Amino acid sequence: MKPTSNIIHKLSTSFMALATAFTANTALAAGDDFVLEEIVVTAQKRSQNLQDVPSSVATLGGEKMSVLKSGGADIKFMSARVPSLYIETSFGRTFPRFYIRGLGNSDFDLNASQPVSLIYDEVVLENPILKGAPIFDLDRVEVLR
Predict the structure, then answer these.
(1) Domains of the chain: which residue ranges?
(2) Is the entire prediction scored with pTM above 0.85?
């Protein structure tokens, strides 16, 4: 190959790359403005933007919750939708045991202290019997890790 054909090949490749970058840039500029959806978290007893909360938070709400409620899911559905949350039970819907990042209680005693708390309408549900409530009236779920 001649040195001039090498230069022509490099120039044509450069021009094609520039043309592709230019068309991608104009297509992006012509599109709609992208806006982040604001997620409001109330887990610390006040409404906060999710970006201002100093801990790791996972939220479920809106369309996802309505689909899950209409399907008749129980509280164990969150185990598949929230990272590092595992919910298990040996008794069907009752007595669920919660584990967040591997921390939980595998004791079946009803009086055992639970390291993972469940707060429902600002009421702490410490007893495992209370944690197996159906989710038909939940509007939003916030998991703080």
Answers:
(1) 55-144
(2) no
